[in-house]
Amino acid sequence: MLTAIGTVASLMAASVTGKWTGAIYGSDGPIPIYLIVSEDQGKVSGSAATDTMPKAAPIENAEIRGDELSFEIHDDQNRVIRFRLTLADTALRGEATVGNQISKVALSRPIASKMTAPTLIHKVEPEYTEEARTARVEGAVLLYAEIAPDGAAKNIRVRHSLGFGLDEKAIECVKQWRFRPAERDGKPVTAASTIEVNFRLKN
Fold first, then answer.
1. What is the pLDDT of residues 81-100, one digit of tens each?
2. CA 129 to CA 147: how far, in whole Å?
3. pLDDT at 81
4. Which of 7, 153, 158, 180 is most buried by a 10 A CB count?
5. Residue 188 burial (CB < 10 Å; 0-12/13-18/19+)?
C-alpha cells in the first residue's frame, strides 16, 4: 500500500508582534529605539519611538510577510523613516532608511517577556495524489504557518514545493491540525512556525 506520512519537523515560536527595544546604528552612533507591533485579523499596527523623538509615532504602511516586518514612521522633523526588518531567532534585524541614508537596526524583546512554543496536539495525515503516486514522488513540503491563539494554523504558505499536487495536500491536512498555542507571559499569542510535511511511499 502507498501511504503518506506527515510530521512536524520544526516549530519556531517566532512572532514579530509584541514589544521590542534596540538601536539604530547611524553615523552619529547608536540611537535607542522602542517598537510595539500588534496584528489583528491581518491588520498590523503599533508605534515606534527613539530617544531623539519627543513622543512615539504610529507605524504606517506596516506589513508582516512570514518573518519579515516592514513599516514607516514620521519622526519629529516629519521625515519618513522606512524600516525593513527580519526575525532571526529572538532578534529583529535590518535597516532603516531616511532619504539616501541607510542605517543598521537591531532589536530584541525585553527580558521580562517570556514566550513558549506552540505544541502539536492533533494531526491528520496527508494524502497522496494519483499523479504523485504514479510518479512515485517522495520528499517534504515545507510550509510557513501562523499558529493562532485558538490553536489553528492560518496564513499557510509553501516555502519548499514538491509539486504533483502534494503542496495542496500538505496544506489541506495542516489546516486540520490543532496546536496548543504559543504563550507570551501566560497569554495565548500568534506565533509563526515552519512545518515540514513528509511524503513517503510504503509497500
1. 999 999 887 789 999 999 88
2. 26
3. 92
4. 153
5. middle
